[in-house]
Each structure stands twice: as C-alpha cells, then as structure tokens.
Design a protein that fits this description.
It contains six helices and nine strands. By secondary structure, it is of the alpha/beta class. It has two domains: 89 residues; 140 residues, 3-Layer(aba) Sandwich (Glutaredoxin). The strands form three sheets. A five-stranded mixed sheet has the order 5-4-3-8-9. A two-stranded antiparallel sheet has the order 1-2. A two-stranded antiparallel sheet has the order 6-7. A hairpin with a 5-residue loop joins strand 1 and strand 2. The N and C termini lie far apart (157 Å). The N terminus is likely disordered.
Length: 245
C-alpha cells in the first residue's frame, strides 16, 4: 500500500471514530437532557399537586376559624338568653300547704337563725327590701310593738333582708327593734320563699326584694302568704291569722 493510500485510510478511520464519539456524546447529552427535563417536569407536577392540598388545608382552617368566630357570638347570645330567662323566672311561687323551705342565716347580735329553731311553733317571716328605709322601718316597728301578742299566740317573728349583719344591727339599735333580723345577701332564702323577683320603679325594671310575709304553722307548713305587702295595718292582719291557726 502506498503512503498516500495509508494516509487516506487513516483519515477515513479517524473521521469514523470522531463521528461515533460525537454520536455517542450526542446520545448521552440527549439522554441527560431528557432525564433532566423529566425530573424537572415531575417536580413541577408534584409541586402543583401539593399546592391545591395546601390551599385546601388553608381554606379549611379559614373556614373553621370563620365558623368558630361566627358561633361565638351566637353562644354568648344563647347564654345571655338563658341567664335572662332564669333571672326573670327566679321569683318562686310558694304554695300554701307546702313545707316551708329550710334556712340557716346569720342574724343581728351574732349567731344564726334557722327554721329548725322554731320546731313546734308558729313562725312569721317578713321580708323587707332594705333596712332603715321608711316603709321597712314602719313594718319592723309594728312587728316589734306586737311581739308580746305574737308570743302569746305561740308565734315567733323574724325579719329578713339582703342587708349585711352590720346594717341589721344598726337598724335594730337605731329603732330599738326586738325581733331577730336575718341577713341573706346571697338571696338564697329570699328566692326560696318567693321574695326575690322582678320589680319596676319609675319605668325601670330590675331584680329585687318583693315585700312579702309568710306564716308557717306549728307543723312546718306554709299557712299564709302575703305578697306586695302594704305596710299600714299589715302586722295586725298577720297577728289575727296567727291566732286563728
């Protein structure tokens, strides 16, 4: 083979090798690019798929928050309605012939006074709105004035209001009252005997003590109930009722 022929063959072989290398490199580059594009596409798809879920979760949280925020005023309104309903219905109607509700309250001068203290005796309980006010003062003085006659008929008398023990003592000392004065600031006995309820004055409605008197017989049952008492002549009317038992 001539020198010229060998040179041509060598060039041809070199070209073939170069072409194969180029093709292999191109194939490799193409595969790499394809793989890269596929990976990027998969990641984008996954990200797109996750995004709605995240948005859905956010929407769910927002919806739940909105529902909670909307329900809170309704719950508060419902609670207010229930409270109002209970408050308005707190005035109990104490039926004649029913057992007198038990009580045990602090009284003026120290100690306490309870229903059990008067077992086997008749008992007058007069509930007054406030110590040392005009109507309450006249009523307490009238029961004090007739105390000996009540005792003669086998009847004890106790006054009750929401005033503090200290206020009751000042009331007793100022007007020389001799009947026990019990203090019920928590309104437990007042409510049990129907002496706490809705009142109105000068167009204003409020909860307070309804002037009430209850006569309990010697067996512990309610014999008579006077509500919305008018003070003048009331103590005398209660004395007559006690004498008739």
């Amino acid at each position: 083979m001539s020198k010229k022929t060998r040179k041509k063959s060598s060039n041809t072989t070199g070209k073939r090798v170069t072409t194969k290398v180029a093709r292999a490199a191109g194939a490799s580059t193409g595969k790499s690019a394809t793989k890269t594009r596929t990976t990027v596409a998969k990641k984008a798809t996954a990200k797109t798929t996750k995004a709605p879920a995240k948005n859905k979760t956010a929407a769910g949280v927002q919806g739940k928050a909105s529902h909670t925020a909307a329900s809170k005023p309704l719950k508060r309104e419902a609670a207010a309605t229930v409270t109002k309903s209970v408050t308005k219905s707190s005035a109990v109607t104490l039926a004649e012939g029913a057992a007198a509700p038990a009580f045990d309250l602090p009284r003026d001068g120290g100690g306490s006074v309870s229903l059990a203290d008067f077992a086997g005796k008749k008992l007058v309980l007069f509930f007054y709105p406030r110590a040392d006010t005009p109507g309450c003062t006249r009523e307490a003085i009238d029961f004090t004035r007739l105390k000996s006659e009540f005792i003669a008929s086998g009847t004890e008398v106790v006054g009750i209001s929401a005033d503090t023990v200290k206020a009751q003592e000042s009331f007793r000392n100022k007007h020389q009252l001799s009947v026990p004065l019990a203090s019920d600031p928590a309104h437990q006995m007042l409510e049990a005997y129907g002496a706490w309820g809705e009142k109105s004055m000068y167009g204003r409605t409020f909860m307070g003590i309804i002037r009430t008197t209850v006569l309990v017989d010697s067996s512990g049952k309610v014999a008579r109930v006077w509500r919305h008492v008018k003070v003048d002549g009331h103590a005398e009317a209660v004395l007559e009722a006690a004498r008739s038992l």
